[in-house]
Amino acid sequence: LNTADMDAETTTNTEPMAEEEEPLFSNLDLFLFSLIVGLVIYWFMSRKKPEPIPEFKKLDTPAPTTRETSFIEKMKKTGKNIIVFYGSQTGTAEEFANRLSKDAQRYGMKGMAADPEEYDMGEMARLSEIENSLAIFCMATYGEGDPTDNAQDMYDWLQENDDEDLSGLNYTVFALGNKTYEHYNAMGKYVDKRLEELGAKRIFDLGLGDDDGNLEEDFISWREQFWPAVCEHFGVEALGDDSSIRQYELKEHTDINMNKVYSGEIGRLKSFEVQKPPFDSKNPFLAPVTLNRKLNKGGDRHLMHLELDITGSKIRYESGDHVAVFPTNDSALVNKLGQILGVDLDVVISLNNLDEESNKKHPFPCPTTYRTALTHYLDITHPPRTNVLYELAQYASDPKDQENMRKMASSSPEGKALYQSWVLEASRNILAILEDMPSLKPPVDHLCELLPRLQARYYSIASSSKVHPNSIHICAVVVEYQTKTGRTNKGVATNWLKNKLVTDNGHKSTVPMYIRKSQFRLPFKATNPVIMVGPGTGIAPFMGFIQERGWLKEQGKEVGETVMYFGCRHKNEDYIYQEELEEAEKNQVLTQLNVAFSRDQEQKVYVQHILKKNKENIWKLIHSENAHIYVCGDARNMAKDVQTALYEIAEELGSMTRTQATDYIKKLMTKGRYSQDVWS
């Protein structure tokens, strides 16, 4: 529809009509009429009290100006020449980006960390307007080779803009991933390759960080070689200034209205008191816990099933999606930290960014108390990264302690080995480090600046919205273990969830949560057979799938074969959801239920062994009946062993070579017929 043509037509049709009739009012009449109306309006306006006018002025100039989406203008304004973009799901890539932007200062340069979601990536080509400029990309890979949520727009931009000329752009990429996953560091590799294709100049090699090994060590080794390469490229020298660089300054509030103080909210102040949809990672919904039961009948572990009520929240989910929950740290740990540092945890503070132009005004929501920060906002249970040790070293009064802390943060083989054994293998969190190094007494505000943010935890949803539209089910195993130092370490989220009783002193227990969409989906055609492999808590999404297939059958739909491969240790201890699974088999919702009890006999039996035993049926379903395969659970061993079993079945029954069999299974993945929801 061409509007220009339409306008032209309308004008030609209406003009003759205008000529035919005499105008009703002359120009003088219209002028006098307008004048009278104007005077009446003026009289009315001038009668009104002039009080509301200042109010309008206030509205006219709102305090927050439109957010600066141009990173180029921001860099020019603040004299920055290095920008570090991060694609981060769990906060690690953001942490690394902050460290690199801080490093720049030691080389006489100025850096800024940037969330690509907040800026217009179309400006990338303009970076050449800034002298000695460099873009660093710290890119994590999520799930099956996907970009993280905050890097999705950047990924789309890189894919769609073939004619972009980035020849003036200097760049380097550090990728964060995990070798146990199929698409190891796919996002970092893609950004690195794509920028080169668009003409950008790589000034240092792609760094590959493996979280299955030692991500921190990979990052340090890469960084140690990266900065000398930058110095050489730009002809600059290190300033030799190794002193600690504070990013935030402390402000203590003595007479503040407590209604203005954050008490654990993730985004908007008081968002937990006044809940407003839509709910997402910055605005979670407080879902009441309606059921919390132990699933296993015996054994020394605690497997649990929780149900969260989402009535009235407008939250929608599908089987296979993930629920993200925001846990809180154990109050006993927080109190111990307060004791050992000798601080009043209830002091109200703000940590304000020294760089006033930064988008990140505070490291966590401020103003708040130290207690709230250490409970809701900061990760106090993971072994701290080397940069934290390096910055805290100055507060150790014993020179030996100082030396060891700095050594652990270096890239020397001796330092790496010390960090590996003393921090990682001993699972020492910040509290354990402070307890075992009595000479170390850091100021609590600097510690709060350095500790990473406490992140949301993701769980595969164990229900179907077709059957439970107002309820989300979680299935999880409580993490608790002894460390080499004789301490008991507890998983933050699972222990917090375990203690979420349905009512607590007459109050409903609530869980701050939101939904993360997943690609883990039942086939579009219900007639397609499905093969589900999920030992342990890997069964979670399949409980949703089974409920959904049952619901489809009840609707009179034709449903393909539904085959389940589940594994646990002992039939009489941890065969979770046994009643539900056997009921589904009895009602022929599950056409086959195969369970491997690994420790009920001399020889260990796992899901991959039963797959191999049923190879003819598996091959028929996959090769002849277009079955979809789903694997959920441990990425390191189980998912790999299942894949190998499928290679062997294809090799034997499809008369293929190992290479052909591998290609055959990989093709199922690219076609979306082989999906994995795995973790390591």
TrEMBL record:
Q: Which cofactor does it need?
A: FMN; FAD
Q: Where is this region: Disordered?
A: 1-20
Matching Pfam families = FAD_binding_1, Flavodoxin_1, NAD_binding_1
Polar residues bias locations: 1-15
Signal peptide bounds? none
Which reactions fall under this protein's catalytic activity? 2 oxidized [cytochrome P450] + NADPH = 2 reduced [cytochrome P450] + NADP(+) + H(+)
Q: How is the cofactor bound?
A: Binds 1 FMN per monomer.
The protein's location, in the record's own words, is: Endoplasmic reticulum membrane
Q: Which residues form a coiled coil?
A: none
Presence of keyword Flavoprotein: yes
Q: Where does NADP(+) bind?
A: R301, T537, S598, R599, K604, V605, Y606, V607, Q608, D641
Residues bound to FAD: R457, Y458, Y459, S460, C475, A476, V477, Y481, G491, V492, A493, T494, W679
Enumerate the spans annotated as FAD-binding FR-type domain.
Answer: 282-523
Presence of keyword Membrane: yes
Q: What does this protein do?
A: This enzyme is required for electron transfer from NADP to cytochrome P450 in microsomes. It can also provide electron transfer to heme oxygenase and cytochrome B5.
Q: Mind telling me what this protein is named? A: NADPH--cytochrome P450 reductase
